[in-house]
Specification:
mainly alpha
């Protein structure tokens, strides 16, 4: 992996937890409950928070942009989430959720000089991010830019992680991996335990059918682990994803990138150290 692609991946690793805490934070669940969402599981608020920038999107659009979720699972929550609260109300509540979560998580760092400096660097990166053909990144980038540093930090983390995610879908399509095949192939290289991927709602029959398709392509062994060709294909997907994600980071010089890593470090530690985030996710951070 080139230094440039490695830096793009490093930034993703730093920013992803800062984005993801809103899906797990008690404050976010309280805001979701106030809107009328069930909070006995995280999915009603997850689909609402993440899809709201798309407007009152239907299930087909959400399934297409989220990609890895079973359409049957998406149908369970969408468009029902918009009958609880319209997307505009969800976006307002999401901002409140981020505000409260970050104030608990980061405390005085919310508007500290280091955070302001990090946000300014990230603003240049998000402004340089081409969101053409990247629906989730474009929808989040089109939202008003917050004045408060901690809210601007979350916005930047979200735009950049969705920018990367949208590019990842293009790389998967280029590799000929459909939504369930992407999960089976990812589990096959040890990105996470197979049960972690079960959270995306695919049935045992759908999982096995995808496994058989990959087996016929020579990408899996009979025991479900990746062949050399399977690992090479997954490696190519990740390389193409990193390439697509790297472009906006070129706006920063090497010293500015190093400074941003330094500034984000304590915030990343706060997110990881909160205990809210699962130790394994379908993103495979730290394993691919």
């Amino acid at each position: 992996m080139s230094d440039e692609l490695g830096r793009a991946r490093q930034m993703w690793h730093l920013l992803e937890p800062l984005h993801a805490v809103v899906y797990y934070a008690p404050e976010a669940f309280e805001e979701a409950a106030a809107l009328g969402y069930r909070t006995d599981e995280r999915w009603p608020s997850y689909f609402a928070w993440r899809a709201a920038p798309l407007g009152d999107a239907d299930a087909a659009r959400v399934a297409g942009t989220f990609y890895s979720f079973s359409p049957a699972m998406v149908d369970e929550y969408v468009p029902a989430v918009w009958s609880v609260a319209p997307s505009a109300a969800v976006l307002a509540a999401r901002t409140r959720a981020v505000d409260r979560t970050y104030r608990t998580l980061l405390g005085e760092a919310c508007d500290a000089p280091d955070t302001v400096e990090a946000v300014e660097l990230l603003r240049r990166v998000t402004d340089a991010a081409d969101t053409t053909g990247r629906p989730l990144a474009a929808a989040n980038a089109a939202l008003p830019r917050p004045d408060e540093p901690h809210l601007a930090l979350w916005r930047a983390a979200t735009v950049l992680r969705e920018h990367r995610g949208d590019g990842h879908l293009a790389a998967l399509a280029g590799a000929g991996l459909d939504p369930v095949e992407l999960l089976v192939s990812f589990a096959a290289v040890g990105a996470a335990a197979p049960e972690v991927f079960a959270s995306r709602g695919w049935s045992d029959q759908e999982w096995e059918a995808a496994r058989q398709r990959l087996l016929k392509r020579g990408l899996l062994t009979p025991d479900g682990t990746a062949t050399e060709a399977g690992r090479a294909l997954r490696g190519e997907v990740e390389r193409r994803t990193d390439e697509a994600a790297a472009a906006p980071w070129r706006v920063l010089g090497s010293q500015e990138r190093e400074r941003l890593v330094e500034l984000l470090g304590p915030l990343w530690v706060a997110a990881i150290g909160s205990g809210m985030l699962p130790s394994e996710t379908t993103l495979g951070i730290g394993k691919v």
